[in-house]
Amino acid sequence: MATLVLDNGAYTAKIGYSSDQVSVIPNCQFRSKTSRMKTFTANQLDEIKDPSALFYILPFQKGYLVNWDVQRKVWDHLFGKEMFKVDFAESSIVISEPYFNFTSIQESMNEILFEEYRFQSALRINAGSLSARGYFRSEPYQLCCLLVDSGFSFTHIAPYCRGSRMKDGIRRINVGGKLLTNHLKEIISYRQLHVMDETHVINQVKEDVCFVSQDFYKDMAVAQLKGHDNTVMRDYVLPDFSAIKKGFCKPADQVVLSGKYKTGEQILRLANERFAVPEMLFHPSDIGIQEMGIPEAIVDSVQSLSEDMQPHMYGNIILTGGNVLFPGFRERLEAELRSLVPAHIPVKVTLPNNPITYAWEGGKLLANDPDYEEMVVTRDDYEENGHFVCEEKFDI
């Protein structure tokens, strides 16, 4: 039987067969102002010739799956002829869900997987549990790890010991990639150019030019300097979707101080925004969110566990999710934790090669595990016992 692994994130779906490679596909629908009546789904984004003022229709709100109509259309597209040509009668599925998911959402998902798509068996599991499984498989001598998963809607801190999550230690910060992009849109709109409708473009700007400062106040002072002394300043060329399909950052040595380029390119000049936006992951209170930053949340999580476990947790911190790809993120987090954790305890923060698909890789290992058949719920089980059997088996 073929096993499909789907890490169903709020921004991208990471999907592929357990015998194959992963595909990262937008988990949403789009409408563009140039073709207002037509709706594009998932990777059809590439077909939109002019993605300015692109309107996103997201199945997730605040990290939870609430718009089933959109999610069904995305899944129909992924499972259908264009993408994976899933033969439901011969397929099993591993699908991720957020921590502390609502029972009503879980029941809807069970119904859709078993009654509509009619998968032969299914396993619903937290993405963090898949990541932990992948980590323990690659480091068989480790007993504990602490996962920092910073995604589109939230950042979760989740401790795992011997492969099972420690529920009491899970912490959530309501800061994710969506908030960072929205904040960058507001700053640019206030200072330079109205871009509140340009989520797609500004998201690209954020990924291309933002970084995590190692010394916030020092970088802030540099960003206020004039001329070439301001080493933080960069010029970003916005796409016009005819000659320039995708925006790009001009090299530091090509920045024209007057800001007037002969080519007629539309330029965004970015200085302290480059590091002030990712700083919200460390200090959400900067924009009025009264919550801990990631380093404090890690310490709070670890201190809720037994003392024997604490050194193991600090020594095995794994970063996953799109936000951890900001340059300097790992180094800053390790430095801040070093100042918060007792000196005799070693601190080690690991950034995997691809933190976005790390959970999917864990799901692939799980699907090929000899114990996999014991963990799933089959369609016969579900038809006989309903949601009860899923609740019993999936709480892992």
Automatic annotation (TrEMBL):
Chief location bin: cytoplasm
One GO cellular component term: cytoskeleton
Keyword Cytoplasm: yes
Subcellular location: Cytoplasm, Cytoskeleton; Nucleus
Pfam families hit by this protein: Actin
Keywords from the UniProt entry: Cytoplasm, Cytoskeleton, Nucleus
SMART domains: ACTIN (SM00268)
The family this protein is said to belong to: Belongs to the actin family. ARP6 subfamily.
PANTHER family, sorted: ACTIN
Protein name as catalogued: Actin-related protein 6
